[in-house]
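pasting for the record
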Amino acid sequence: MKHLHPIVAAFQAEHPRVTVDLVLEDRVIDLVHEDYDLALRYGRPEGQDLVVRRLGWVRRILVAAPAYLARAGGIETPEQFAACHLVTTRAAVDARSALILHRGRETVTVPVQPVLRTNSAEVLVATLLAGRVIGPVQHLLVADHLETGRLVRVLPDYEVRSTEAYLVYPSVRHMRPAVRAFTDFAVPRIRAVEGMQSNV
């Protein structure tokens, strides 16, 4: 929502006769049966009735508010991180309640006990900003907060596994000119979002 809505608004400013239905849901939709022209998905989509266009990798980093770090003291190792109060999404933590951290070719598995799991990006960021927890978050959600100092990176040498992002189209439907125009407009802007990278 944070980045797609401004891109849609900018597209409509150039194409004022185009009406857009921007649906923001945390589920996999059936593009054909639910009558969608395109979707943005994390992870490589499955299905032969889809056309996919890779956008890049969404980086995940560890962050906290300065107030939390002031109470918790220095967090300089993954082991210290494991003892922290954590907010996360289900996608960031594996089935064993472990967080997989990467530093170059090194991989570290950190057992964690989140105090809050959420599927809402807004709740995740708001909880981090409140200074009660630490957590993994998509870089593109917090780039502005990092710049202002409201959030800071923790263990900056480490990152959580990145996720691939794709635009997906139903292959059985002819792409309308407005959809093609939006795709050409949106793809470079999505790839330019801080926290996206073309390869990893």
